[in-house]
Write a structure and sequence with these properties.
The complex is a heterodimer of chains A (270) and B (312). With 270 residues, chain A is an alpha/beta fold. Chain A folds into three domains: 98 residues, Translation factors (Elongation Factor Tu (Ef-tu), domain 3, Beta Barrel), CATH 2.40.30.10; 120 residues, Rossmann fold; 46 residues, Ribbon (Dihydroorotate dehydrogenase B (pyrk subunit), domain 3). Chain A is 20% helix and 36% strand. A seven-stranded antiparallel β-sheet of chain A has the order 4-3-7-1-2-6-5. Chain A is globular and about 55 Å long. Chain B is an alpha/beta fold and 312 residues long. Chain B has a single domain, classed as Alpha-Beta Barrel (TIM Barrel), CATH 3.20.20.70. In chain B, the strands form four sheets. Chain B has an eight-stranded parallel β-sheet. In chain B, helix 7 links the parallel strand 15 and strand 16. Chain B starts with 6 loop residues before the first strand and ends in a 23-residue tail after the last helix. The chains are: A alpha/beta (270), B alpha/beta (312). Chains A and B meet through loops of A and strand 5, strand 6 and helix 8 of B.
Chain lengths: 270, 312
């Protein structure tokens, strides 16, 4: 289905920490079409200092009692002008919301397991993915890494869906101290049978490490990348990433339309 | 829309003057789901060399006040793949296809143009002699009056298609380049390409984009582009396709009044891929409000009578 541009209103702004917030946007039509892993291009209507939209994974599709989409949420982390503005947004503010865009994750079903690996704001695509996996009763684990306890969010949400949680923080304030790829690799080593699809989203060094660990243990792996993006529709050629090519040398492809979800083994990491 | 938005560029008649700018609209098909490609005056596809090009390493863009700097480096699939994979689909959709032709030598411009001339479904050739982001070719022709004339004359001889050199604003007197293009047989000129620019990340003290330098586009450049179109309009008789930071019908009219026969929209399409219908509706609305039957009556209709010093 083609993407649509919704002149959405901010319904709620939940500030999770000094840097993170979850914005609920009245973009029901976008939510109804969204598959886990897809994104929206967002721009506050009153932004005068910047021009371009910013890409955000659809974090949650908010649904009514009948399962109809009523809104979407995005997980925002302050990093620049637009994200600061989104952090400060108030209910009623207008946010242009174009989507859904990009290739989604490939959901698996039992007996295959799903292992989601999130680093920091890379948690963003996994709420919708976890819901889809729960609907198919796929055994799901979330490996979730962050700088500290203060930057771990929505743990209850995943626990209520029956997701097994494995947490790591860089300062050791919750879960294991260090990188989340360490418990991931240990879990892969201790596996005896069956296959797990690994889904990853987070900083690129983490994605590279996850892809490498998955390849070593011969498990399938999909990663969601974030590159500086101009348009989200393939027009500007800004968001390219290098992928391997069966018939020739590696070449740049646009992560907005060829991704943002890629086979982890396909990417040539910087 | 009852009013007539059509314009003529050489032998071409376009149903309206609004063309998607090269480098900002992929090969057109990327927008197939969101836009009726035949509803645009034309679709100017991404620049093509004879062979595929990889382009620059990312990051390739950075935002700046009211604009953006890009150095994509003309990543592209080459003319042969374009003709085989994209052109038939564009024809099916009824798009009027302008092809932005690149070259590192005059021979390459000629060869690419010949391939396009032999293909079905190309409306016009836009000669890219103005990309600021590649080391060889392109801009070296666009920054020299002799070079501009040589490329245009050589391609003119090689094709029956309308030839439209795209001019760079990174020269002292752009009108003299329009003149050189006209003298060499160009059917029209398009301007402006981007302004050579640079942005530094002061926190890291490093470049914001890999290529260090890039081309500035967006509303920030619009007043300079309007001035340049106006200067060229006074210098040449061939049609001008104006561009630079157009985001709505008002902006497009500024170029048309300054003397542009048609306009291209680029950066604004990144922000709003539904911009096309809005601009066309806005042009129609303007004609109605100002009691014009034909948009072409507005080309160059700028009245230089000074504005009043006080508000009425």
């Amino acid at each position: 289905m083609p993407p649509i541009d919704v002149d959405a209103r901010v319904i709620a702004n939940r500030r999770l920490s000094r840097d993170y917030n979850v914005l609920t946007l009245s973009a029901a039509e976008v939510g109804a079409r969204t598959q886990a892993g897809q994104f929206v291009m967002v721009r506050p209507a009153d932004m005068t200092e910047t021009l371009l939209r910013r890409p955000f994974s659809v974090f949650e599709v908010v649904r009514d009692d009948h399962g109809a989409a009523t809104a979407i949420t995005i997980l925002n982390k302050r990093a620049g002008r637009t994200t600061n503005r989104l952090y400060d947004a108030e209910p009623g503010d207008r946010i242009a919301c174009l989507g859904p865009l990009g290739k989604p994750y490939t959901p698996v079903a039992p007996p295959q397991e799903a292992w989601m690996v999130a680093g920091g704001v890379g948690l963003a695509p996994f709420a919708t993915l976890a819901q889809a996996l729960a609907a198919s009763q796929t055994p799901t684990t979330l490996f979730y890494g962050a700088r500290s306890d203060q930057e771990l969010f929505h743990l209850d949400f995943f626990e209520q869906l029956g997701v097994t949680m494995v947490v790591a923080t860089e300062d050791g304030s919750r879960g294991e101290r260090g990188r989340v790829t360490v418990p991931l690799e240990r879990a892969l080593q201790s596996r005896t049978a069956g296959s797990a699809m690994i889904y990853a989203c987070g900083p690129e060094p983490m994605l590279a490490a996850v892809a490498s660990v998955a390849a070593r243990h011969a498990q399938p792996c999909e990663v969601s990348v974030e590159r500086t993006m101009g348009c989200g529709l393939g027009g500007c050629y800004s968001c390219v990433i290098k992928v391997k090519h069966a018939d020739g040398p590696a070449h740049f492809v646009r992560s907005c339309i060829n991704g943002p979800v890629f086979d982890g083994a396909e990417i040539v990491w910087d | 829309m009852a009013r007539d938005l059509s314009v003529r560029i050489g032998s071409l008649t376009l149903p309206n003057p609004v063309i998607a700018a090269s480098g900002c609209f992929g090969y057109g098909l990327e927008y197939d789901e969101v836009t009726d490609l035949s509803s645009l005056g034309g679709v100017c596809v991404k620049g093509l060399f004879m062979t595929e090009r990889e382009g620059h390493a990312p990051p390739r863009i950075v935002e700046t006040p009211a604009g953006m700097i890009n150095a994509i480096g003309l990543q592209g699939i080459g003319v042969h793949r374009f003709v085989k994979e994209k052109l038939p689909l564009l024809r099916e959709r009824g798009a009027r296809v302008f092809v932005n032709v690149c070259g590192t030598t005059i021979d390459e411009y000629v060869e690419v143009s010949k391939v396009l001339s032999q293909a079905e479904g190309v409306a016009a050739i836009e000669l890219n002699i103005s990309c600021p982001n590649i080391k060889e070719g392109g801009i070296q022709f666009g920054c020299s009056l002799v070079g501009t004339g040589s490329v245009v004359a050589a391609v003119r001889k090689a094709t029956q298609l309308p030839v439209i050199p795209k001019l760079t604003p990174n020269v002292t007197d752009v009108a003299s380049f329009a003149h050189a293009a006209e003298d060499a047989g160009a059917d029209a000129v398009s301007l402006v390409n981007t302004f050579l620019a640079m942005a530094i990340d002061v926190e890291t003290r490093r470049p914001t984009i890999t290529n260090v330098l890039g081309g500035l586009s967006g509303p920030a450049i619009r007043p300079i582009a309007v001035r340049m179109v106006w200067e060229c309009a006074q210098e040449v008789k061939i049609p001008i396709i104006g561009m630079g930071g157009i985001t709505n019908a008002r902006d497009a009219l500024e170029f048309i009044l300054a003397g542009a026969t048609a306009v291209q929209i680029g950066t604004a399409n990144f922000v709003d891929p539904f911009v096309w219908d809005k601009v066309l509706a806005g042009l129609d609305d303007y004609l109605e409000r100002h009691h014009f039957e034909r948009l072409s009556d507005l080309i160059g209709a700028f009245d230089p009578t000074p504005p009043k010093a006080v508000h009425a």
